[in-house]
């Protein structure tokens, strides 16, 4: 894994966010917080979990500090969530710009389940954060469809096609 790989994957991550956030912005406050389905039960809860986790990994890896996990109730509407998402994107892009490829092998210690100490390479932890984001964005897309909204497609194929000016 290279820094350029991570920068590309995070660029895709934020491109996909920019595809789904305008759809989420169409939700009423009731729809945003409504219990629909899934492990986090609402679009808001799933999105806050996703943002908190991405920011949490950035923080654990030495980037902009998040503090305590984000709480869904602190986001009664989508607007403050979008603002924080833009901030985290800036923090991540700045963080990645500081590294050389060999830096991605630095081991980062973190607490796992039951506070068990674990250690993994920086690059792998950041890569995990991207995959985690794709997983939960897919869940958010399903929840949006359950509420009658069409989030469109944000597969990486469409990102690459758009990036290279190729019809998807």
TrEMBL record:
Gene3D superfamilies cross-referenced by the UniProt entry: dinb family like domain (1.20.120.450)
InterPro entries named among the record's database cross-references: DinB, DinB/YfiT-like
Protein name as catalogued: DinB family protein
Organism of derivation: Fodinibius salsisoli
Position of the signal peptide: none
One Pfam family named in its UniProt record: DinB
Family the UniProt entry places it in: Belongs to the DinB family.
Keywords of the record: Metal-binding
